[in-house]
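Tutorial, part two.
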Amino acid sequence: MAGGKGTRLGKNKKHHLGYADITEKPLMKVNGKELIMYIIETLKTLDSVDSIVVATSPNTPLTRRFLEKKGITVIDTPGIGYIEDMREVTAVIKEKNPILVVSADLILFDGRVIEDFIHAFNNVPLPAGAIYCIDENRILTPVGINIVHPGMMDQEQEELAFIIPEGVVVNINTMEDKKRVEERMGRQKL
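Running the prediction step on this input gives:
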């Protein structure tokens, strides 16, 4: 999913880290590489991922062109919202089996978490699943990695809640998030 507006990045606003002249969050450079390429490269290494399709929108035309040049399948969505765009993708691809949906603004410090999630999902009789991180206060937060059943997109889906420690998956929403991730990348190899 790469069609959001990236409003929390505060594009074209002055930050204490300098000017954020990012036009589209998926193309923001993190440690010299486009943010979206971290998740795409991780997904390409997973045995349980058959294909990669990226949802873009009128909010991310440069991302669409960038991905098309790399030979990655892109589906244009209206850019109304995450759930609405996810529904659009499932309608276009006409998949009957559950699909993995991943936000484009994630950095995985352990890519095996997706493989473990898919394996756990395949061993429960539920139509959907989501990865949540748990923080020191025992608060669960969805990380932006889900499995959904395309035929059930218009109804509530009972889901597997796959819980991981905080920090395994990091969502980059702000320039401060980007800075923290780059500092962490400098300390450990992805």
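Residues 7-187 form a domain with the Spore Coat Polysaccharide Biosynthesis Protein SpsA; Chain A fold (CATH 3.90.550.10). In part three we will examine how such features are distributed along the chain.
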